[in-house]
Structure formats: C-alpha cells, structure tokens
Amino acid sequence: MKIALTVTAISLVFLTIACQTSEENITPATNTTTNPTTPTTPSTTVNPSSQEIYDTFVRLALKNSAGTAAMTIRKWLPTKTQIKVYWDGGRTTTLLSALDKVMADMNTLNKYNKMVRTEVVAEADIIINRVEAATHNSKYASFQVSNSSVQGTTFTQWSSDAITKAVVWLSPSTPSNLQNGVLRHELTHALGIGHTENTKSIMIPVMSSTTYDFNSFSILDQRIIQILSDNRVKQGNTEANISAVIKEYAAK
Ligand SMILES: [Zn+2]
Prior knowledge:
The chain is α/β, with parallel strands linked by helices.
C-alpha cells in the first residue's frame, strides 16, 4: 500500500515596523539650529499607572503597527535560550558598547531568551546593519528599506507567531546623541514589540516628542518586556488569553 505524503510549506511573513513616512523620525520638529538637544530626564524615574501598563502592553504586543487591528502575541520561543546578535556594517566601538548595554538590560528582564553577540553571521538570529539604505538593500534582498529618511527599520521574520529572525537597519545619518536611543528602540522591536503613543515608552515612533533619556528602559518598558517574555504568555495568544498575566505585572 502506498502512503500518501503531504508536504506543507510554511510560509514566512515579513513585518516591517516603522518604515512608513515620518515614523522613526527623531529630529525635533521645532529644532532651530544644529543637532537636537540631548534628552536628560532619566526615563526610569517616570512611574506609569497600572492602567497605563495594561493599555500599553495591549497596544505594543497585541495590535498591528498602526494600532488599528488586534493581533496575536508574536515572540521568540522560550526554548530559544540564546538569541545571537551580529553587527554587520557601520559598527563602532561606541555603538558595540551601547549594544552590550541594551542586551544586558534586556537579559535582566527576559528570563528565557538571552541575547549574546556573535561574530559568525551564519548563526545570527538578529543582524544589525548601519549603512546607507541602498547598500543595505543590495545585500539584504528580503529585508528592503523602503524609506531611507527614517532613523531605523526592523524586519521580523516569523512562523506560526514564533519569531525566527530579525534584521535591524540603522540610518548612518542619525545624530550621535540619539544613536543609543534608536538602537534600543529597534532592538526592542526585534522582540516582537510595536509602537505606542505613550511617551514614557521608548517605543514611541517619533522620539523627539519626549524629553527622556533612553539609555535605559523606563519602568513602563521594563514591565512590557517582562510580560512578553513570561512563559505563560504564548505566541498566538489573544488579549483574552493573557489579561490576568498582564494585570499581575501591571499591579507590581
Ligand atoms: Zn519603531
């Protein structure tokens, strides 16, 4: 007897976060002369309310990029114990130090997926590339930057809501005093987190609308990352599935 075999092709979808016109534009709208002023207020001093934590998590992890439609949880699997990060073009000693700081901050909040740097591109789960958009596009055919006037774009690749790869494009034109904030913002996208309009979060699409210094995660962002990485929050979950878990963190 012949056994019929069925081959199912799993299609991968690419999500482009924040590559629309004006998104990721962190140049202050009202700036007069040269570079924008470096924000100085530590974001960690700003306390969000429980409702803000709940609402922001729903906006960041359970809505599409525009905030117009409900989405299911998309995340790296808890069994993915190491996320290997490779910096391709445009790396500097200063930026690598900033990356190490962002990864260390994430690793204290995320119990399961620890970010580590790699120098082997073939094993990279996340690739960072800080080159002109045209140069990036000629190398990364599947991760095309469509708007080169933004500060960064993060592409996330997933299958069945489990993230399997991310490519972060950073603009080489970003002023040096804002590079750390953009890097932190884009790497947070790579976790499966979208945008919010809440200025207590680094995930605002236009960073000039805040005065906070985003060289660390705000309390709001810390809660968001903790909730998403909690083992009870599973890829494919809806808000109804996990509202109790979100409330638990919101009450902390
Ligand atoms: Zn963004």
